[in-house]
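call fold(seq) -> tokens
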Amino acid sequence: MPKPVEQQIEELTAGINRISDEIKPLAEEANREVKNLGRITDETRQRVDNALTTQGELQARLATAEQMLAKVQNGGGQPGQPPTIGAMVTDSDEFQAFAANPKGDFRMSVQASVGSGSGSAGDLIVPDRIPGIQAPALRRLTIRDLIAWGRTSSNSIEFARELLFTNNADVVGENPTAGKPESDITFEADQAPIVTIAHWIHASKQVIADVPQLQSYIDGRLRYGLKFKEEAQLLKGSGVGLNLNGIFTQASSYANPGVAVQAETRIDRLRLALLQVELSEYWADGIVISPLDWAAIELTKTKDNAYLFANPRAQNLPGLWGRNVVPTQAMDAGDFLVGAFGGGLAVQGWDREDMTVQISEHDRDNFIKNMLTIRCEERVGLTVYRPQAFVKGDFDGIDASTNA
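ret:
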């Protein structure tokens, strides 16, 4: 038997208060992680998202329950009953004529059925409502998590990069007449701007007020859209105008270091790209690749049609040559990027202002139209200290069907 509306409201209110109490320590934990690690861990971010989603769902159910209570209190809470057969007979024109002149027998055909129309069951049939909004698929964002992050209070990051080192170190005598050899180091100044990434939407003030869950959903979608653009900028920002100068944009182009390879495959080319990084005195710890190319690699078979290294029945983490592989659609099919992503030695991201969502009615004619402007923005920067620590290339000239 359904619970009374008043009891539902009481339980939902208690649930919202409980979730609110849980969100506060989560927010404090997130702030500590940002302070200590420079970012929020995936686990904490997932816990915060789950708590906010639950809070939105409870608020939406509470609003629905309050509307049902108001309807009952105003006398409109009881659904209409379908007319009985007796009522259909007494209300018919045939019966009214017989009642005015009761002669002979009275007969009439009554066709009664129970359906979902307003003349039958009507409001007795209540549709099932699935909680939450059914969102489209979201891309897994990975590039930000590959690199180290710091905080800045400026609108740009300036740094000095070693341009040339002439090393004349040599073995010398105890008191050389010509003096000890002199080496030389040349530096160049470089800087990376802090850019603003932002977008906004219009929303009805009444809808946001009446459906709290919708506000939470819009908040999440705006945040995702912002991070989606951030990932594209971190990887392939052009560096022109207001754009970040992305890692792929600044990376060195692939060139075979001089190793002869027979029947070259995608796996071979990635290994040569890793070698190119190593010959530049850096250690590549990651490979960024399109999911299409990674699938082609996993499906590589021997001449006996056995999978080269993947076991379809096992849980294989993406990896090649001891390095992590990151399949992402942010990378175009046929392209790849390898390099020293971790540690902050070759690349580092900078947070100037954390991602925020703000709501205001003070925008154009919002006030008189009962509209709201919801804006989401952040300010970030990216410094690639050592472009030689990254190598970009493509798989041109490699036949996808080539067997090992």
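The chain has eleven helices and eleven strands.
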